[in-house]
Amino acid sequence: MRSPALRHVLTHLITPLLMCIGMGLAYMGAFVTPEPHHLPVAVVGSAPKAKVFAQTVKDTAGDKLDVRTVATRADAVDLLKSREVTGAYVPSAKAPELLVASAASDMGATAVEKVFAPVAAEQGVPLKVTDVAEPVADDPTGQGLFFLLIALSIGSYASVAALGAAGAALSMRVRALLTLGVSAAVSGIGALLAGPVFHLAHHDLAGVWGMAWLYSAGILFIGVGLHTFLKRWTTLTMMVLFVMLNFTSSGGLFRPELQNGFFGTLHAFWNGAGFVEGVRSLLYFGDDGLSRNVSTLVVWLLVGLVVTGIAALYERPRRARHAVGHPGTATTEAEATATPAVLPTEREAARAAEEEAEEEVEETVGV
Q1: Where on the phi/psi map is residue 124: left (φ > 0), alpha (ψ -120 to 50), or beta?
Q2: Please, are residues 132 and 80 in contact by the beta-carbon 8 Å criterion?
Q3: d(CA 286, CA 358)
Q4: Does the pLDDT at position 107 exceed 80?
Q5: Which ranges constitute the DSSP H helices of the chain?
Q6: How confident is the model at residue 344 (pLDDT cuts 50, 70, 90)?
Q7: Residue 198 to residues 195, 293, 336: CA-CA distances in angstroms?
Q8: Torsion angle, CA of 345/349/355/360, rounded to 10 degrees?
Q9: Confidence check: pLDDT of 88 > 80
Q10: Please, which residues bridge with residue 100 across strands?
């Protein structure tokens, strides 16, 4: 291609086009056709009639439902509050009841209601729906935590370009310290949004901030470390890791039982799911499962620290060679004479590096 400027533009168009493909595949694959896959539900009752009813529901639904029986309504409530089941049906000839926990998943509660509402309709009686774990009135669908995740993610991965590209001249130690500061700022903004601004968290705001910090710091350290090796391709990599695969598997909109096996599997260990489910545990479910979700966030942070450490070791000899070539000491007469011929080239290289860093920052923030 004869025009360098045109080649430069076409090269930079590769990233947004790949993002377009990736976002389409990820979001449409995860969200467009939600269907139950082994959705766990319970039928309350110990009599043979209840067991026959549960087996009938299972046979009718096939792989869409995993049906169990529990002896009492209290047992069903416990299973809902530990998020082991999505709904529990209490059979009755006059007043059948469906127990749900919409704070765990509003979409899941809706899905089980669609399963059992026809059963009550066949009996000619209304179905009573009881929500044993409702989200706060300021977040009636419980999806505010998903949008909080988006805000934290964008603040984190967009900062990677500034720390990695614009801060490339800084030592890794300085960039790591800046990363700690940025993660504190991003998580602080998240806590303000969750608390005083939108009132998603009516209690335990400090715990929400702590999980937000773990989540943000993990993303930032992974990104800053990867930038040493990937350079301008870091933006695309971060989008794949922390948007395409992350938002879709977080459980913020659909629980894994309403998604295909790929995103359902990611939900078990991805950091976005760790944050969303961890905050749900803290705010609505009495810390049930909290330690597991915090552990997930800690593991991602440790991975980030390891990647950053490897990047620091990789950069050290390069910086040492650069320091030998540019000791910053007084030049000899011959070196002074040669300097005018060298400086323009160095200035051009520095200017090109600055322009590339600016392009990367703009590209990331623009996304």
Answers
A1: left
A2: yes
A3: 46
A4: yes
A5: 4-31, 48-61, 73-81, 106-123, 144-161, 172-192, 205-230, 234-239, 246-249, 261-266, 271-284, 290-325, 333-366
A6: low
A7: 6, 24, 62
A8: 170
A9: yes
A10: 87, 131
